[in-house]
Amino acid sequence: MTHFISRHAGLMVLAVLLALLPLVLPNSFYVDVAIRIGINAIVVIGLNLLMGYTGQISLGHAGFFGIGAYASAILTSHFNWPSPLALAAGAAATGVLAFVVARPILRLKGHTLAMATLGLGIIISIVITNEAQYTGGPDGLAVSPLAVFGWELVGERRWYAAIAVLLFLTVWGAVNLIDSPSGRALQAIHGSEIAARVAGIDARRVKVRIFVLSAVIASIAGSLSAHYVGFVTPGIAGFFHSIELVTMVVVGGMASIFGSLAGAALLTVLPQFLSAFEGWETVVLGVILMAVMIFLPRGLVPSLRHGFAKGRG
After folding, report:
1. 152 SS3 class
2. Mean pLDDT of the chain
3. CA-to-CA distance for 45 and 261, rounded, in angstroms?
4. Distance between CA atoms of 87 and 108, rounded to whole angstroms?
5. Neighbours of 31 (CB within 10 A)
């Protein structure tokens, strides 16, 4: 019993926080921020599985996010598809694309892999911008509400409940994946791909699978974001959004599922509250991020955990 509690303490705390948070948030603005944190955290968890645990850099994950968002927008607006079916179609299309490109791309390493994924993201962003007949081009496209069997998901409180449940399931799935033999294979590849191969791990297959999984997670989050906001623009698939997602992974903590939550929360909340600096918010944000990486080089959660353990020792 003690082993079970210690192993799942983080999940228990997360469940309690997600349940109590809407009770203490003062108004709909803060609920909206919490929803955006949840959506970003879902994407970042998938990206951290790829980067933090497997050691594969991706600078194009916003492209997968954009595919999901625009799949839901286009299929529901132009073809009158039910929104759950559009979401599933976007996730399936993203998975197929990720599988096709993963095999050649993941043969690369280091900066060449980063450049390849960056190129993929740029291509997706350009296609979305140029296919104005369906995507609306630079002007964007309106998205209908998420409806399941005629019931529409509207209002911040309902959206918060849906995103909170999905976020908890994502964290639970990621934690269990890391604790499984497949998760240990990911970490073995990160440590030394050659040693992992010698140990009998099919490194290419493992990397392709985790790349596809992280891409599908990003696509689903993109679809949910599109339905929640009600509007999509090409910027959500752009380079700067990809950099923002990678920064969330690094600041929160590489190879830390709960670090992904911290990174997503920090980089979603800070721009909201730094707007009071009127034109200097980007500079202030940069200074804060520099301070975090200087004084907490492992990222927020791993550095704090290490400091706490050192203090107890």
Report:
1. strand
2. 91
3. 8
4. 31
5. 18
